[in-house]
Amino acid sequence: MASIQTGGPDGVTLHGIELRRRYAGDVNPAGLRHGVGRYEFPNPAYTYEGDFRLGRKHGVGTFTTPDGGRYVGEFVDDEITGRGERVWGDGRAYVGTFTLGEMNGEGRLTRPDGGSYHGGWRANRRHGRGVDTHGPSGDTYDGEWVHGKRHGVGVAVLRSAGDETYDGAWERDERHGEGRMENRSSGESYVGGWRDGKRHGVG
């Protein structure tokens, strides 16, 4: 495996890409990045350091962005795919699986306000089963999700509403179907039907 260090006055051009002061690492006989190296993108604030295969990010590496964001984990054919840890410039952090750069599969997201979500993901949205905790209030929901909304069966504990608990059916983020509500502060309880977040029918 050959190794090159770019950055001299002449630089190095591979397949028409000017690499002056941008890549340091291994290349294959065809001149493609292959092995381990560090690459600075045209905006030098973006960097990748890790494994390459046939000119693409492939294997394990670290990708950093100018806003302070960082991804450490697996890459497949230049894409963030596999297991890894990502931190955004706004303070959010995610540990879990990715597909083509999106949170997909199983993972845990923590938010700067102290909130978190741990469970299933699809295309960057909560999907499947998972537990969400709202940071400022401490409210929680443990149950099913569809495309980022509470949908299916789940339990919500609302400390912000007098320590109220709802255990039952949900549809598009609203209580909808059969469910049981209890409020410890007021002593109120209700078992029965719900529609669009409101009691419906005889309970």
From TrEMBL:
Residues 106-143, 170-203 are annotated as: Disordered. Keywords: Repeat. InterPro entries: MORN. Pfam families: MORN. SMART domains: MORN. Residues 170-185 have a biased composition (Basic and acidic residues). GO terms for cellular component: membrane. It comes from the Eukaryota. Coiled coil: none annotated. This is Uncharacterized protein. It comes from Micromonas commoda (strain RCC299 / NOUM17 / CCMP2709) (Picoplanktonic green alga). The lineage of its organism: Eukaryota, Viridiplantae, Chlorophyta, Mamiellophyceae, Mamiellales.
